[in-house]
């Protein structure tokens, strides 16, 4: 795990194949007329039918914390459990997106590693609805839609839970020599 400790200084080199603005996905003028609950329902219903996408909606408060934390500490690990073990994704936040690639690909290819999964946080409805719509685009079907949901939920958990953020994300970025992979593995119940 020693090679992990220097990763926070690098950025993925990646052409973005996913929508970057909410208006690229929905008719924003129509969404702005709907209630917050209706926006969430429409967003969820649309993405439930798409095999390559996941969706969520987070509050302005969650969005603000997440954005502040990932601006300060943009890189982190997310485990994906499989029947025969697990693998790690390396996540990197960039502006309103979080890109995930297979850690071993990143070790081999560095910034040329291709993302498997991309999360986009849309903030256009925050001023009027106090709501950020979230979309995940599965780029490489080495991860499934249920696994993509796990990646998103573990991302939120690591960034929004103060102890997890401090122990696993902040240290990974700012004090890599203090990042305790054994504690990380134990917390996420990974076999080492």
């Amino acid at each position: 795990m020693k090679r992990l400790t220097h990763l926070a200084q690098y950025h993925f080199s990646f052409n973005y194949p996913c929508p970057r603005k909410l208006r690229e996905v929905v008719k924003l003028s129509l969404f702005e007329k709907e209630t917050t609950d209706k926006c969430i329902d429409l967003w969820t219903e649309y993405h439930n039918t798409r095999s390559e996408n996941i969706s969520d909606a987070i509050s302005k408060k969650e969005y603000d914390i997440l954005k502040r934390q990932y601006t300060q500490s943009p890189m982190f690990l997310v485990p994906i459990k499989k029947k025969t073990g697990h693998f790690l994704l390396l996540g990197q936040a960039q502006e309103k997106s979080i890109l995930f690639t297979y850690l071993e690909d990143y070790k081999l290819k560095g910034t040329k590693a291709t993302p498997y999964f991309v999360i986009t946080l849309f903030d256009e409805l925050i001023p009027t609805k106090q709501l950020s719509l979230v979309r995940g685009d599965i780029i490489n079907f080495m991860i499934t839609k249920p696994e993509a949901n796990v990646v998103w939920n573990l991302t939120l958990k690591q960034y929004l839970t103060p102890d997890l953020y401090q122990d696993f994300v902040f240290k990974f970025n700012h004090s890599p020599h203090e990042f305790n992979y054994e504690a990380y593995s134990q917390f996420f119940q990974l076999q080492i």
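Residues 2-187 form one domain. The mean pLDDT is 91.
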